[in-house]
Protein backbone atom coordinates (compact mmCIF):
# COMPACT_ATOMS: atom_id res chain seq x y z
CA UNK A 1 0.00 0.00 0.00
CA UNK A 2 1.25 3.44 -0.83
CA UNK A 3 2.41 5.31 2.28
CA UNK A 4 0.55 8.44 1.26
CA UNK A 5 -3.23 8.50 1.24
CA UNK A 6 -4.73 9.90 -1.92
CA UNK A 7 -8.41 9.52 -1.11
CA UNK A 8 -8.82 13.29 -1.44
CA UNK A 9 -9.28 13.73 2.31
CA UNK A 10 -6.86 15.46 4.68
CA UNK A 11 -3.48 13.83 4.78
CA UNK A 12 -1.92 15.48 7.83
CA UNK A 13 -2.58 14.70 11.47
CA UNK A 14 -1.44 16.77 14.43
CA UNK A 15 -0.08 16.11 17.88
CA UNK A 16 -0.66 19.00 20.25
CA UNK A 17 2.49 20.38 21.93
CA UNK A 18 0.91 23.15 24.03
CA UNK A 19 -2.69 23.87 25.10
CA UNK A 20 -3.04 26.97 22.90
CA UNK A 21 -0.54 26.68 20.03
CA UNK A 22 2.06 24.50 18.33
CA UNK A 23 1.72 20.98 16.93
CA UNK A 24 3.85 18.17 15.63
CA UNK A 25 2.76 17.33 12.09
CA UNK A 26 2.40 13.71 11.04
CA UNK A 27 1.70 12.25 7.63
CA UNK A 28 3.80 14.70 5.62
CA UNK A 29 5.10 13.27 2.36
CA UNK A 30 8.43 14.90 1.53
CA UNK A 31 9.12 12.62 -1.43
CA UNK A 32 7.14 14.80 -3.82
CA UNK A 33 8.80 18.03 -4.83
CA UNK A 34 7.07 20.36 -5.39
CA UNK A 35 4.75 19.50 -2.52
CA UNK A 36 1.22 19.03 -3.96
CA UNK A 37 -1.12 22.01 -3.68
CA UNK A 38 -3.65 20.18 -1.48
CA UNK A 39 -0.92 19.37 1.03
CA UNK A 40 0.39 22.93 0.93
CA UNK A 41 -3.16 24.15 1.66
CA UNK A 42 -3.30 21.85 4.70
CA UNK A 43 0.02 23.24 5.94
CA UNK A 44 -1.15 26.85 5.54
CA UNK A 45 -4.42 26.13 7.35
CA UNK A 46 -2.47 24.48 10.18
CA UNK A 47 0.14 27.24 10.56
CA UNK A 48 -2.59 29.92 10.56
CA UNK A 49 -4.21 28.15 13.48
CA UNK A 50 -1.16 26.85 15.37
CA UNK A 51 1.66 29.34 14.72
CA UNK A 52 4.31 26.61 15.07
CA UNK A 53 4.58 23.33 13.12
CA UNK A 54 7.19 20.69 13.97
CA UNK A 55 8.08 18.21 11.23
CA UNK A 56 10.19 15.36 12.61
CA UNK A 57 12.76 13.78 10.28
CA UNK A 58 11.89 15.89 7.25
CA UNK A 59 15.49 15.29 6.14
CA UNK A 60 15.57 18.06 3.54
CA UNK A 61 18.81 19.14 1.91
CA UNK A 62 19.63 22.78 1.14
CA UNK A 63 17.94 22.71 -2.28
CA UNK A 64 14.76 21.07 -0.98
CA UNK A 65 14.66 23.45 1.99
CA UNK A 66 14.80 26.47 -0.33
CA UNK A 67 12.35 24.93 -2.83
CA UNK A 68 9.74 24.26 -0.12
CA UNK A 69 10.17 27.79 1.26
CA UNK A 70 9.73 29.22 -2.23
CA UNK A 71 6.56 27.20 -2.62
CA UNK A 72 5.21 28.62 0.63
CA UNK A 73 6.15 32.10 -0.48
CA UNK A 74 4.58 31.52 -3.90
CA UNK A 75 1.53 30.09 -2.29
CA UNK A 76 1.17 33.37 -0.47
CA UNK A 77 1.44 35.16 -3.78
CA UNK A 78 4.89 36.42 -2.95
CA UNK A 79 7.93 37.13 -5.01
CA UNK A 80 10.74 35.38 -3.23
CA UNK A 81 12.37 33.96 -0.19
CA UNK A 82 14.82 36.46 1.13
CA UNK A 83 18.16 36.21 2.74
CA UNK A 84 17.49 38.04 5.90
CA UNK A 85 20.05 40.04 7.69
CA UNK A 86 22.87 41.84 6.00
CA UNK A 87 25.07 39.79 8.26
CA UNK A 88 28.39 41.43 7.41
CA UNK A 89 29.95 38.01 6.97
CA UNK A 90 30.11 35.40 4.25
CA UNK A 91 27.57 32.62 4.60
CA UNK A 92 28.69 29.00 4.40
CA UNK A 93 26.43 28.36 1.41
CA UNK A 94 27.19 30.79 -1.39
CA UNK A 95 25.09 28.61 -3.71
CA UNK A 96 22.01 29.23 -1.60
CA UNK A 97 21.91 32.87 -0.52
CA UNK A 98 18.39 32.21 0.81
CA UNK A 99 19.84 30.08 3.59
CA UNK A 100 20.73 31.92 6.75
CA UNK A 101 23.41 30.21 8.77
CA UNK A 102 22.18 29.89 12.37
CA UNK A 103 24.93 27.43 13.32
CA UNK A 104 27.76 27.92 15.77
CA UNK A 105 30.25 27.27 12.95
CA UNK A 106 32.59 29.51 11.02
CA UNK A 107 33.25 29.16 7.30
CA UNK A 108 35.80 26.43 7.92
CA UNK A 109 33.34 24.39 9.94
CA UNK A 110 34.98 25.20 13.28
CA UNK A 111 32.96 26.13 16.36
CA UNK A 112 32.83 29.91 16.82
CA UNK A 113 34.77 31.13 19.86
CA UNK A 114 35.58 34.40 21.62
CA UNK A 115 38.13 34.94 18.84
CA UNK A 116 35.14 36.03 16.71
CA UNK A 117 33.36 38.37 19.11
CA UNK A 118 31.07 39.86 16.45
CA UNK A 119 29.54 36.41 15.90
CA UNK A 120 29.74 35.23 19.49
CA UNK A 121 28.42 38.43 21.10
CA UNK A 122 25.97 39.18 18.30
CA UNK A 123 24.41 35.77 18.73
CA UNK A 124 23.40 36.61 22.30
CA UNK A 125 20.58 38.75 20.93
CA UNK A 126 19.08 35.52 19.63
CA UNK A 127 18.54 34.37 23.22
CA UNK A 128 16.01 37.19 23.64
CA UNK A 129 12.38 37.00 22.50
CA UNK A 130 11.97 38.12 18.91
CA UNK A 131 10.15 37.73 15.63
CA UNK A 132 12.51 37.43 12.68
CA UNK A 133 13.05 40.63 10.68
CA UNK A 134 10.80 42.82 12.82
CA UNK A 135 13.58 45.41 12.43
CA UNK A 136 12.98 45.65 8.67
CA UNK A 137 10.30 47.80 7.04
CA UNK A 138 9.01 44.71 5.23
CA UNK A 139 8.60 42.15 7.97
CA UNK A 140 8.90 38.36 7.80
CA UNK A 141 6.10 35.83 7.70
CA UNK A 142 7.35 32.22 7.92
CA UNK A 143 10.69 30.97 9.15
CA UNK A 144 11.78 27.39 8.48
CA UNK A 145 14.58 26.18 10.72
CA UNK A 146 16.23 22.88 9.97
CA UNK A 147 18.55 20.79 12.14
CA UNK A 148 21.48 19.45 10.14
CA UNK A 149 23.69 18.44 13.05
CA UNK A 150 22.46 18.62 16.63
CA UNK A 151 24.58 18.66 19.77
CA UNK A 152 24.29 15.53 21.97
CA UNK A 153 20.90 15.02 23.64
CA UNK A 154 20.57 16.83 27.01
CA UNK A 155 23.29 19.34 26.16
CA UNK A 156 20.77 22.04 25.28
CA UNK A 157 19.93 23.93 22.12
CA UNK A 158 16.14 23.88 22.51
CA UNK A 159 14.14 26.59 20.77
CA UNK A 160 11.33 28.31 22.66
CA UNK A 161 8.15 29.80 21.25
CA UNK A 162 5.67 32.21 22.77
CA UNK A 163 1.95 32.44 21.96
CA UNK A 164 1.71 36.20 21.45
CA UNK A 165 -1.86 35.99 20.09
CA UNK A 166 -3.27 34.35 23.22
CA UNK A 167 -1.16 36.69 25.37
CA UNK A 168 -2.62 39.63 23.44
CA UNK A 169 -6.19 38.44 23.96
CA UNK A 170 -5.53 37.91 27.66
CA UNK A 171 -4.04 41.35 28.33
CA UNK A 172 -5.61 43.09 31.32
CA UNK A 173 -8.30 45.50 30.06
CA UNK A 174 -6.49 48.64 31.27
CA UNK A 175 -3.29 47.64 29.48
CA UNK A 176 -5.21 46.77 26.32
CA UNK A 177 -6.73 50.27 26.33
CA UNK A 178 -3.41 51.90 27.08
CA UNK A 179 -1.62 50.35 24.10
CA UNK A 180 -4.42 50.88 21.62
CA UNK A 181 -2.92 52.54 18.51
CA UNK A 182 0.65 52.68 19.82
CA UNK A 183 3.51 52.22 17.34
CA UNK A 184 6.94 50.73 18.08
CA UNK A 185 10.25 51.72 16.48
CA UNK A 186 12.36 48.60 15.96
CA UNK A 187 16.11 48.25 15.72
CA UNK A 188 18.31 45.22 15.09
CA UNK A 189 21.16 46.78 17.04
CA UNK A 190 18.92 47.49 20.05
CA UNK A 191 18.43 43.72 20.44
CA UNK A 192 22.16 43.09 19.93
CA UNK A 193 22.93 45.66 22.60
CA UNK A 194 20.46 44.10 25.03
CA UNK A 195 22.14 40.73 24.40
CA UNK A 196 25.69 42.00 24.89
CA UNK A 197 25.71 45.56 26.32
CA UNK A 198 29.46 45.75 26.92
CA UNK A 199 30.53 44.61 23.45
CA UNK A 200 28.05 46.84 21.61
CA UNK A 201 28.31 49.84 23.93
CA UNK A 202 29.68 52.11 21.20
CA UNK A 203 26.66 51.43 18.98
CA UNK A 204 23.78 53.93 19.12
CA UNK A 205 20.59 52.34 17.75
CA UNK A 206 19.13 55.77 16.95
CA UNK A 207 21.89 56.30 14.36
CA UNK A 208 20.22 53.80 11.99
CA UNK A 209 16.69 53.87 10.56
CA UNK A 210 14.08 51.95 12.55
CA UNK A 211 11.08 49.95 11.34
CA UNK A 212 7.67 50.99 12.65
CA UNK A 213 4.82 48.62 13.52
CA UNK A 214 1.55 48.76 15.41
CA UNK A 215 2.05 47.17 18.82
CA UNK A 216 -1.18 45.27 18.26
CA UNK A 217 -1.28 44.07 14.67
CA UNK A 218 -4.03 41.68 13.59
CA UNK A 219 -2.88 38.33 12.26
CA UNK A 220 -4.44 38.11 8.85
CA UNK A 221 -4.37 34.30 8.64
CA UNK A 222 -6.55 33.85 11.72
CA UNK A 223 -8.21 37.22 12.23
CA UNK A 224 -6.90 37.26 15.81
CA UNK A 225 -5.03 40.18 17.36
CA UNK A 226 -1.30 39.70 17.92
CA UNK A 227 0.97 41.55 20.33
CA UNK A 228 3.82 42.35 17.96
CA UNK A 229 6.36 43.24 20.64
CA UNK A 230 9.92 41.97 20.27
CA UNK A 231 13.29 42.82 21.82
CA UNK A 232 13.93 44.89 18.70
CA UNK A 233 11.40 47.42 20.04
CA UNK A 234 13.49 50.41 21.07
CA UNK A 235 10.89 53.06 21.77
CA UNK A 236 7.29 54.07 21.14
CA UNK A 237 6.36 56.61 18.53
CA UNK A 238 6.45 60.08 20.07
CA UNK A 239 8.23 58.92 23.24
CA UNK A 240 11.86 58.57 24.25
CA UNK A 241 13.48 55.24 25.11
CA UNK A 242 13.29 56.13 28.83
CA UNK A 243 9.60 57.04 28.61
CA UNK A 244 8.77 53.90 26.63
CA UNK A 245 10.54 51.41 28.87
CA UNK A 246 8.05 51.22 31.78
CA UNK A 247 5.22 50.25 29.43
CA UNK A 248 7.43 47.76 27.56
CA UNK A 249 8.40 46.21 30.91
CA UNK A 250 4.77 45.79 31.93
CA UNK A 251 3.98 44.16 28.60
CA UNK A 252 7.00 41.84 28.85
CA UNK A 253 5.89 40.80 32.35
CA UNK A 254 2.58 39.74 30.92
CA UNK A 255 3.91 38.19 27.70
CA UNK A 256 6.64 36.04 29.20
CA UNK A 257 4.43 34.14 31.62
CA UNK A 258 5.26 30.44 31.61
CA UNK A 259 1.79 29.53 30.37
CA UNK A 260 2.45 31.14 26.98
CA UNK A 261 5.77 29.36 26.37
CA UNK A 262 6.40 26.20 24.36
CA UNK A 263 9.84 24.56 24.41
CA UNK A 264 10.65 22.57 21.29
CA UNK A 265 13.21 19.84 21.84
CA UNK A 266 15.11 19.01 18.68
CA UNK A 267 15.17 15.23 18.46
CA UNK A 268 16.89 14.18 15.26
CA UNK A 269 19.10 15.60 12.58
CA UNK A 270 16.63 16.37 9.81
CA UNK A 271 13.92 17.87 12.06
CA UNK A 272 12.32 21.01 10.62
CA UNK A 273 10.33 23.65 12.49
CA UNK A 274 8.19 26.21 10.71
CA UNK A 275 6.73 29.21 12.53
CA UNK A 276 4.70 32.31 11.77
CA UNK A 277 6.60 35.42 12.84
CA UNK A 278 3.43 37.50 12.74
CA UNK A 279 1.66 35.29 15.32
CA UNK A 280 4.42 34.03 17.64
CA UNK A 281 7.72 35.01 19.23
CA UNK A 282 10.72 32.74 19.62
CA UNK A 283 14.23 32.58 21.04
CA UNK A 284 17.24 30.31 21.13
CA UNK A 285 18.21 29.04 24.59
CA UNK A 286 21.63 29.25 26.21
CA UNK A 287 20.93 27.14 29.27
CA UNK A 288 22.58 24.00 27.88
CA UNK A 289 26.21 22.94 28.04
CA UNK A 290 26.86 22.41 24.31
CA UNK A 291 28.04 25.98 23.62
CA UNK A 292 31.65 26.18 22.48
CA UNK A 293 31.94 22.39 22.68
CA UNK A 294 29.60 20.69 20.23
CA UNK A 295 28.49 21.50 16.73
CA UNK A 296 24.96 22.83 16.34
CA UNK A 297 24.40 23.20 12.61
CA UNK A 298 21.03 24.88 12.04
CA UNK A 299 19.91 26.53 8.80
CA UNK A 300 17.00 28.86 8.20
CA UNK A 301 14.97 30.30 5.40
CA UNK A 302 12.44 33.11 5.83
CA UNK A 303 9.60 34.30 3.64
CA UNK A 304 8.45 37.88 3.60
CA UNK A 305 5.06 38.81 4.97
CA UNK A 306 2.39 39.08 2.30
CA UNK A 307 -0.45 40.26 4.50
CA UNK A 308 -1.89 43.75 4.32
CA UNK A 309 0.18 44.52 7.44
CA UNK A 310 3.53 43.60 5.85
CA UNK A 311 4.95 47.14 5.73
CA UNK A 312 3.55 48.20 9.11
CA UNK A 313 3.75 51.99 9.40
CA UNK A 314 6.76 52.27 7.08
CA UNK A 315 6.30 54.47 4.06
CA UNK A 316 9.75 53.64 2.68
CA UNK A 317 10.14 49.88 2.73
CA UNK A 318 13.06 49.64 0.33
CA UNK A 319 15.81 49.38 2.95
CA UNK A 320 17.06 46.55 5.17
CA UNK A 321 18.81 46.77 8.52
CA UNK A 322 22.42 45.69 8.90
CA UNK A 323 24.89 45.07 11.70
CA UNK A 324 26.63 48.27 12.84
CA UNK A 325 30.36 48.28 13.21
CA UNK A 326 31.65 48.20 16.75
CA UNK A 327 34.33 50.72 17.72
CA UNK A 328 37.34 49.07 19.25
CA UNK A 329 39.89 50.55 21.67
CA UNK A 330 41.40 53.72 20.27
CA UNK A 331 38.73 54.25 17.61
CA UNK A 332 36.33 57.14 17.87
C1 LIG B 1 16.27 31.68 14.13
C2 LIG B 1 16.36 31.48 15.59
C3 LIG B 1 16.69 29.78 17.29
C4 LIG B 1 17.56 28.61 17.52
O1 LIG B 1 16.81 30.86 13.39
O2 LIG B 1 15.62 32.65 13.71
O3 LIG B 1 16.00 32.34 16.32
O4 LIG B 1 17.27 27.87 18.48
N1 LIG B 1 16.83 30.29 15.99
O5 LIG B 1 18.53 28.44 16.77
MN1 LIG C 1 15.04 34.05 15.07
Automatic annotation (TrEMBL):
Record keywords: Dioxygenase, Iron, Metal-binding, Oxidoreductase
Domain TauD/TfdA-like: 14-302
UniProt-listed Pfam families: TauD
Alphabetical list of InterPro entries matching this protein: TauD-like_sf, TauD/TfdA-like, TfdA_dioxygenase
Molecular function per GO: dioxygenase activity; metal ion binding
Protein family (similarity comment): Belongs to the TfdA dioxygenase family.
Name listed for the protein in its UniProt record: TauD/TfdA-like domain-containing protein
Organism encoding this protein: Zasmidium cellare ATCC 36951
